[in-house]
Amino acid sequence: MTSSPLTGADIREAVAAERRELADVLAGLTAQSWNTPTLCAGWRVREVVAHMTMPLRYSTVRFVAEVLRSGGKFNRMADRCARRDAATAPGELLAALKDNAAYPWKPPGGGFEGALTHDVIHGLDFTVPLGHARRVPEERLRIVLQTITKPSTLKHFGVDLAGIELHADDIDWSFGSGARMSGAAQDLALVLCGRNLPDRHLQGGPGTRFTNS
To answer: pLDDT, tens digit, for every residue of 48-69?
Structure first.
């Protein structure tokens, strides 16, 4: 017996649940922990949360204005705004995430699956370096894995997986072919998104190191 396909409403609820759970993690952090470096190069926890909440805090007009101010370069705008907004009090950033858990933001062309992927990956960007034991629920993680293995997404992150099979050791999932690199599914999702993980998180593979994107 197969499960019914997830509806848009199901995925929206998954997004809201992910934001609420990440807010609970952040609520338990010390002031010093907000300055912990993350898997996003050059960003601490506070920059990552500022970036995660940017779509929840900015109007469309302000977003467009910020992009134009950065010469039309989204990545440049995202970095500039994250570093600037990181000066916001942690409590305000936390409230922006928690109070807008159900906000129906979708990245351009990404749908609610893209919104879930955005929150899951950036949540892992700070929970992994913090050594937090949180595991992304399998149902949400499978949506993310399906999203980030699309050819367009793989091209965006530019990770070279030629000759490598990613094999999850906690759920029934694999991707690619070749030398096996195994680990928890959520860690493999980070690999697909170009994050460098501590060696203890992965086993096997040809010793490839990845570049953050």
So the answer is: 999 999 999 999 999 999 999 9
The DSSP code sequence of 60-94 is: HHHHHHHHHHTTT-HHHHHHHHHHHHTTS-HHHHH
Candidates 113, 111, 110, 122; CA nearest to 53 is 122
Q: Dihedrals φ, ψ of 131, to 5°?
A: 75, 25
Q: How far apart are CA 114 and CA 108, in angstroms?
A: 9
Of the three residues 79, 113, 138, the one that is the final residue of a domain is: 138
Residue 165 vs residues 30, 32, 154, 204: alpha-carbon distances, Å: 38, 38, 14, 10
Count of Cβ atoms closer than 10 Å to residue 209 Cβ: 7
pTM: 0.91
Same domain, yes or no, for 88 and 169?
no
CA distance 184 to 171: 8
Query: What is the pLDDT at residue 201?
Result: 79
* Domain-located, residue 3: no
- 3-state class (DSSP) for residue 148: helix
CA gap 147, 117 in Å, rounded: 7
